[in-house]
Automatic annotation (TrEMBL), chain A:
GO cellular component: plasma membrane
GO molecular function annotations of the record: ATP binding; ATP hydrolysis activity
Cell compartment(s), UniProt: Cell membrane
Organism for this UniProt entry: Actinoplanes xinjiangensis
InterPro entries, per the entry: AAA+_ATPase (IPR003593), ABC_Ni/Peptide_Import (IPR050388), ABC_transporter-like_ATP-bd (IPR003439), ABC_transporter-like_CS (IPR017871), Oligopep_ABC_C (IPR013563), P-loop_NTPase (IPR027417)
Major location category of this protein: membrane
One GO BP annotation of this record: peptide transport
Protein name, UniProt field: Oligopeptide transport system ATP-binding protein
Domain ABC transporter: 21-272
Membrane-topology annotation of the record: Peripheral membrane protein
Entry keyword set: ATP-binding, Cell membrane, Membrane, Nucleotide-binding, Transport
Family stated for the protein in its record: Belongs to the ABC transporter superfamily.
SMART domains (alphabetical): AAA
UniProtKB/TrEMBL annotation, chain B:
Taxon lineage: Bacteria, Bacillati, Actinomycetota, Actinomycetes, Micromonosporales
Keyword Membrane: yes
A GO biological process held by the record: transmembrane transport
Xref: CDD domains: TM_PBP2
Keywords recorded for this protein, A-Z: Cell membrane, Membrane, Transmembrane, Transmembrane helix, Transport
UniProt cross-references to Pfam families, sorted A to Z: BPD_transp_1, BPD_transp_1_N
Topology of the protein relative to the lipid bilayer: Multi-pass membrane protein
The protein's name in its UniProt record: Oligopeptide transport system permease protein
Sequence intervals crossing the membrane: 12-29, 101-122, 134-155, 170-188, 229-250, 276-301
GO cellular component: plasma membrane
Subcellular localization(s) per the UniProt record: Cell membrane
InterPro entries: BPD_transp_1_N (IPR045621), MetI-like (IPR000515), MetI-like_sf (IPR035906)
Residues annotated as domain ABC transmembrane type-1: 95-298
TrEMBL record, chain C:
Signal sequence, renumbered to the chain: none
Name the UniProt record assigns to this protein: Oligopeptide transport system permease protein
InterPro entries, per database record: BP-dependent_transpt_permease (IPR050366), MetI-like (IPR000515), MetI-like_sf (IPR035906), OppC_N (IPR025966)
Any one of the GO BP annotations: transmembrane transport
Protein localization: Cell membrane
Membrane topology note: Multi-pass membrane protein
Organism: Actinoplanes xinjiangensis
Phylogenetic placement of the source organism: Bacteria, Bacillati, Actinomycetota, Actinomycetes, Micromonosporales
Length: 343, 308, 295
């Protein structure tokens, strides 16, 4: 690990003591012919080294868009980041020039995608796609880059790495392909890893292996990990803190045990109640009534009010509930958090 | 890879016999008087009648005739034309200029199609893209039978920028105008296919990954996207070879280029049956072999096929 | 969009065809090409609306005479009225184009549906048949076919029509085949089959309506291509011949004398290009309406 990082360390305003990653009031909208879809409406959260933050929510709640906004890989147009900041070690990434931004990607902040088969280029070997990182970012020779690629495949425990380096993505199994994705993301020793539904496309047994591998690599490297998922089961095992997103906002943020014990937002509560539980066997399962709102037409006030059992008049009116500090290190965007907590 | 090649080869052999049989049967089958058919509307002398009967084994059954026709064809013996000239020799003297012309046209078309196609896909919906779209529409609407004579008249005769005709040992410059005209027959579809394919690939997940890897846009387009977009493009080249052959027939006739096309057109005009059948059969074979080459190239570009 | 009637129509539930029609109505390309097609058809069926001169009334004494009140486009090498010949040329062009395209469409429809619906051996045989036709470069095949089919002394219309019909059905068949295969695998078609719908009912009630849009597009494009092909064959002297009037023949005759008189070369070229353009634009517009993501 004696890479020359000098080239990528010259970010203006970089402060090693500042928080690793901080997202403040992020707004992302998609401007299409059929109107403006507000995918993210003021998402805020932070991440420390070695910590795992889970971003939880239904599909369409803006969690993947948030991740891509942090990476700076949204398609613009139609996507536009209309407000907010994404600070890495104090540097607002959204204000960087594209060339500087590019050096942050993969070097400082890397990302793993859900479907590794389509996320890998079908016409190049995995060796080429791994080595490319070292060649483009580190200016390594072909032979050195190849050697490093084999090391990486070894690290993510792909058997016979040396032989498999010249295989194409379609020749790997689903789990192995996701390992290749992980290897690719970790190639340049990033400090932040964003995993967007990394195990959704995999078998349950393989899911556990991949999550285990991720957790282990994270500990080794003291990386900050943002785990984007809709699966509360995955979250409980690995996450330190949880941010629950609904209609483009973080509605609740809390350490993982607190949230499972006592949710502070009706939406979190509804999510927890909709998980089948062994101790409640025989009782009917509660589903959340209604559907998530269309992003082109988000309800005024608290976006969750049409589906909420606690909703009263103030919930239906703008402004949306602020982030109440409901306990130390916990926030919830609900006027009636005390009722929800059961106080 | 091996299975793919074998399958393609078997398909080609089948197509080869099918296509040559169709051409052959059309010339000789169900004719009251195949010899008169070969000679067109000209009167046939007894000696010519005898020579043609022997040449095409017209006293045998249809399959027998086909057998002799094929063995002759595959051994390079194309016989003589009605006017008594050796067809193989005619072909030999005329192919180099046709190959030169077609190659120039193909390179011109492919170069323009790839460059403009990629550019217009990146700037989708922009001025350049819309201009290119209108341009391809115009090219598609201009059949070569319009474009070739009009281009010859405007650029060759009125403006005098290019020679209006070309000889056997034509220079690059003399063949440029005909090559451009010939290129127009394929460039529009090539351009549209490139554009559509690049647009689709730009939306692919692997492009998002490449961006997340911090690669430069130029590298993403020319290394990642283009390589994937070349796959449909190469398939199209196979079809285009046939279009170029058809186009060469008209182009050479218009510009008086003494190539395979104008010889064939001459054979058609003089109703020289043996010459037309000989030329067409050889061209069909060339077309099929070239398509096999394209198929192999396709496999080289797409590993998913290679490891099928 | 502010037009209240449009808004009302828009709010009504509609199928793919309704959506496509709404797109089409707003497409400038669609209206331009429709007007062009209408004019061309009018010219083909009622040429005398456009010219009163007799296209066969030629006199060498008027050779290459310039435009005049009687003959707007002047006279060609034979001393025939260029306008009259060009206008009357539309008839043969459209007739050959329409009939050959319908023939190709019919063959393609039957073969494509059979291959897609039955699959297996039928599909294999028909697909090889398509390969064989595609194995012969189009114009080379057409030259042999057309030369073979035309009898001595006729005008070549039947021969060219048959030639084009028999050589150009492959794209229609392929499109039909893949549409049928795609439709066949849809859940609702499988459900209808399990409920005991007869093959004929399946084909005409459930599969065809979904396969017909791409087929129409192919037909429109093919019509343009076949009209161009007729001109090309005529130019090479294996298409229309003798007394027949054809844009291809006009171009061939005028090309040699382009320096002396350009009008006899230019006008049939313009009419031919406009006709081909009209049908290609029509096909493009319909395709865009049915499949907006291709844009």
């Amino acid at each position: 690990m004696t890479d020359i990082k000098a080239q990528s360390d010259v970010l203006p305003g970089l402060d090693p003591r500042a928080p690793l990653l901080q997202v403040n009031d992020l707004h992302v909208e998609f401007r299409t012919r059929d109107g403006v879809a507000k995918a993210v409406n003021g998402a805020s959260f932070w991440l420390n080294p070695g910590e795992t933050l889970a971003i939880l929510g239904e599909s369409g709640c803006g969690k993947s868009v948030t991740a891509q906004a942090i990476m700076g890989i949204l398609d613009t147009p139609p996507a536009h980041i209309s407000r907010g900041e994404v600070r890495y070690r104090g540097v607002d990434l959204l204000k960087l020039r594209e060339t500087e931004r590019r050096r942050v990607r993969a070097n400082k902040i890397a990302m793993i995608f859900q479907d590794a088969l389509s996320a890998l280029n079908p016409v190049y070997t995995v060796g080429f796609q791994l080595a490319e990182l070292f060649r483009a970012h580190r200016g390594m020779s072909r032979a050195d880059a190849r050697r490093r690629a084999i090391e990486l495949l070894d690290q993510v425990r792909i058997p016979a790495a040396k032989a498999r380096i010249s295989d194409y993505p379609h020749q790997f199994s689903g789990g192995m392909r996701q390992r290749v994705m992980i290897a690719m993301a970790l190639a340049l020793d990033p400090e932040v890893l964003i995993a967007d539904e990394p195990t959704t496309a995999l078998d349950v047994t393989v899911q556990a292996q991949i999550m285990g591998l991720l957790a282990e690599l994270q500990q080794q490297r003291n990386m900050g990990l943002i785990l984007i998922t809709h699966d509360m089961g995955v979250v409980a095992d690995v996450a330190d803190r949880i941010s629950v997103m609904y209609a483009g906002r973080v509605v609740e943020e809390a350490p993982v045990y607190d949230i499972y014990a006592r949710p502070g937002h009706p939406y979190t509560r509804a999510l927890l109640e909709s998980i089948p539980r062994l101790d409640l066997k025989g009782q009917p399962l509660t589903a959340i009534r209604g559907l998530p709102p269309a992003l082109t037409d988000i309800p005024a006030g608290c976006a969750f009010h049409p589906r909420c059992g606690y909703a009263k008049e103030p919930c239906r009116q703008d402004p949306a509930p602020p982030a109440y500090a409901i306990a130390p290190r916990r926030t919830a965007r609900c006027h009636f958090f005390r009722e929800v907590l059961g106080e | 890879m091996f299975r793919y090649i074998v399958r393609r080869l078997l398909q080609m052999i089948l197509t080869f016999f099918g296509a040559t049989f169709v051409v052959f049967a059309l010339m000789f089958a169900n004719q009251d008087d195949p010899i008169q058919a070969l000679a067109g509307e000209k009167p046939v002398s007894d000696s010519l009648r005898e020579a043609l009967t022997e040449r095409y084994h017209l006293d045998e059954g249809l399959l027998g005739q086909y057998w002799y026709y094929m063995t002759n064809l595959l051994t390079g013996d194309l016989g003589e034309s009605i006017s008594g000239r050796d067809i193989s020799a005619l072909l030999e003297s005329s192919w180099p200029v046709t190959v030169q012309l077609s190659f120039m046209a193909l390179v011109l078309a492919a170069g323009l199609a790839l460059a403009a196609g990629v550019w217009s896909a990146i700037r989708r919906g922009g001025i350049f893209d819309n201009g290119v779209l209108a341009f391809t529409l115009l090219l598609l609407a201009l059949p070569i039978v319009v474009l070739a004579p009009v281009a010859q008249w405007i650029f060759g005769m009125e403006l005098g920028w290019f020679p209006a005709t070309a000889s056997r040992n034509a220079s690059f410059y003399a063949l440029l105008l005909p090559a451009i005209v010939l290129a127009t027959t394929v460039v529009a579809t090539q351009l549209r296919v490139t554009r559509t394919s690049v647009v689709e690939n730009l939306r692919a997940d692997y492009v998002r990954t490449a961006r997340a890897k911090g690669l430069a846009p130029r590298r993403i387009i020319w290394v990642h996207v283009l390589r994937n977009s070349l796959i449909p493009f190469i398939t199209l080249i196979g079809v285009d070879l046939g279009v170029l052959m058809s186009g060469a027939l008209v182009t050479e006739e218009v510009f008086n280029i003494p190539g395979v096309g104008s010889k064939l057109a001459q054979g058609i005009r003089t109703e020289d049956g043996p010459m037309v059948v000989g030329f067409v059969s050889v061209l069909v074979i060339v077309f099929l072999v070239m398509n096999l080459v394209v198929d192999l190239l396709y496999a080289a570009l797409d590993p998913r096929i290679r490891y099928e | 969009m502010s037009d209240p009637t449009t808004a009302m129509v828009d709010s009504r539930p509609r199928g793919l065809a309704g959506d496509a029609w709404n797109d089409l109505r707003r497409s400038k390309i669609f209206w331009t090409s429709s007007v062009l097609v209408f004019l061309i058809l009018l010219m083909a069926f009622f040429p005398t609306l456009f010219t009163s001169a007799d296209p066969t009334d030629c006199a060498l004494s008027r050779q290459h005479d310039g435009p005049s009140g009687g003959a707007l486009f002047g006279y060609d090498f034979q001393g025939c009225d260029v306008l009259a010949r060009t206008v009357h040329g539309a008839g043969n062009s459209i007739q050959v184009g329409l009939v050959s395209t319908l023939l190709a469409g019919l063959i393609g429809l039957c073969f494509g549906m059979a291959a897609g619906y039955f699959g297996g051996a039928v599909d294999a045989v028909l697909s090889r048949g398509i390969d064989i036709v595609l194995g012969i470069p189009f114009l080379l095949g057409a030259v042999v076919f057309s030369g073979r089919l035309s009898g001595a002394g006729d005008d070549g219309v039947t021969a060219v029509t048959l030639t084009l019909g028999l050589l150009t059905w492959t794209s229609a068949a392929r499109v039909m085949r893949s549409s049928v295969v795609a439709a066949k695998n849809q859940d609702y078609v499988a459900a209808a089959r399990m409920l005991g719908a007869s093959p004929a009912r399946l084909m005409f009630r459930h599969i065809l309506p979904n396969a017909i849009a791409p087929f129409i597009v192919v037909m429109a494009l093919l019509l343009g291509a076949n009209i161009a092909a007729e001109a090309t064959l005529s130019y090479l002297r294996v298409g229309l011949k003798g007394e027949a009037i054809s844009w291809g023949l006009q171009i061939a005759d005028a090309q040699k004398h382009a320096r002396a008189a350009a009008a006899p070369l230019v006008w049939p070229s313009v009419f031919l290009a406009a006709t081909v353009l009209a049908f290609i634009m029509l096909g493009d517009a319909i395709r865009d309406a049915f499949d907006p993501k291709l844009r």
